[in-house]
Amino acid sequence: TTRAARRLCAYTSHRRPLLVFGDGSDTETSLAKSGNKSRLRQLRKLGDVTFEEITDQTEFATALAEAAAYHDARHLAVRGSAPFQNDPRKAPFYLALQATEPKLIHATALRVGGELASFHANMISRDEVQMGFIAHNPALERLSPGKLHILMLASLLREKGYRLLDLTPGDEAYKDRFANDFDQVHTLAIYSDPLRRAVGAALLHLKLIF
Q: Which residue among 83, 85, 137, 156 sits deepest, i.e. has the most Cβ atoms within 10 Å of its Cβ?
C-alpha cells in the first residue's frame, strides 16, 4: 500500500546544474577571458598543452591509475579518505566499463608536457554527457587545469553533436559557476525497514545542513 511504501521509501528532489552548449558562445567567451588565457600561457611554459579523447584501453588504464592517485591525494587532504584505496572495486569497474561498453563512457585527458594535468571519465546518455570521475594534478592546481578541462570538454562535446554536460547535483561551488541552466531530478531510496529509513533521512538532513 501507499502507507507501507512511505514507511520504507524516501523520495528526494535535487537541483541539477547543466552546461547547455547551444551555439558554443558561452564556452568561447569563458575561454577568451584574460584569466583563462593567462593560465593557458603559463601551462604552455611548462610544456606542450594537449587535450584529447581517450579510446584506447591501455591508454585509458594508464591515465585512470594516475588520476586515481591525484583523486585520493586530494580527498585525503580534504576529507581524510582515499576512495580508490578504500574501494578495490572502483578502478576495475571503470576498466571493465571502458572495455565492454565503450559507447557508454567518454574519457578525456588534458596533458602538459606529456604529463597528465586533468582527467575525466564521464557517462554518455543519448545527447547528454554526465560528469562522473574527475581528477586533476594537485601540483598544477594554481593554474586551474580542472576548470580549463571542463571548458575544452564542452567545446569538444558540442563539436561531436552532444547537447549538454550534466554537472550532476552536489554542493560543489564550481558546478553553479559553470552552469547556465538547471532542472530537477529525483532519487528514490528503498530501505529494508522503517528504522533504517529514519536513519537515512536523518543523515540526509544533516548533509543538507552542513
A: 137
- Under 8 Å CB-to-CB from 190, ≥6 apart: which residues? 8, 9
* Angle subtended by helix axes 57-79 and 90-100, to nearest 10: 150
Calpha distance 197→201 (Å, rounded): 6
Q: What is the pLDDT of residues 9-58, one digit of tens each?
A: 988 899 999 999 999 999 999 999 999 999 999 999 999 999 999 999 99
**What's the pTM value of the predicted model, to 2 decimals?**
0.88
For residue 106, give Cα distances in angstroms to 62, 96, 97, 113, 123.
Answer: 15, 14, 11, 23, 6
Kind of pairing between the strands at 49-54 and 105-112: antiparallel
